[in-house]
Specification:
Blueprint: H1 10-22, H2 28-33, E1 38-43, E2 48-55, E3 63-69, H3 73-87, E4 91-96, H4 106-122, E5 125-130, H5 134-143, H6 157-171
Length: 175
């Protein structure tokens, strides 16, 4: 059995320090409530769906998990189900786009409908989390992070937004 090792670089250490500085602190109630659970966060979009994961008690912080190129809801749900089954996710967190004043948009209704379909298919707990300005925050983090060479990477922005949605969910006292 071989064990793969990875050299920790200065960029990795700087990025970890940066994350610790900017990451929202999880609410203690949520750490206890979700301990031992594997969470999948979804930043739903009509072009790209970003994903992030977090195994409470095992991972140091929410991790970018990838993205799905959107063709239609059924295709996205099929790909999500493959991830859910393969990685044994226990809980889904779906970003809910609201205006900054908290009101709903047409996209909010679209995401709610998608969430209902996904929950019915996945048969696991699904939470909706306000994702207001998560893409802007992801963009800002990329511009300030050595991991992204201080540039916005459009191929990774959706999964970083999903990790921010997950951070917000864990930091919230509303769950």
């Amino acid at each position: 059995m071989s064990i793969k090792t990875r050299r920790i670089t200065v960029v990795d250490m700087e990025f970890t320090r940066y994350l610790i500085k900017i990451m929202k602190t999880p609410h203690p109630k949520n750490i206890e409530r979700f301990k031992g659970k594997h969470l999948l966060s979804i930043d739903y979009g009509t072009k790209v769906v970003g994903l992030a994961s977090y195994a409470v008690g095992r991972d140091p912080y929410p991790l970018c998990f990838g993205r799905i190129i959107y063709r239609n809801d059924d295709q996205v749900i099929k790909e999500l189900m493959a991830h859910i089954d393969e990685n044994a996710f226990d809980i889904l967190i779906l970003g809910l786009p609201l205006y900054t004043d908290g009101t709903e948009s047409d996209m909010t209704k679209t995401v709610r409908n998608f969430g209902e379909k996904l929950k019915e298919k996945a048969q696991i707990e699904l939470f909706l989390q306000d994702e207001t300005l998560s893409s802007f925050e992801a963009e800002d983090r990329m511009k300030n992070s050595p991991q992204y060479n201080f540039k916005v990477d459009l191929k990774k922005i959706d999964e970083l937004a999903a990790s921010i949605i997950l951070e917000d969910f864990l930091a919230s006292n509303q769950n």
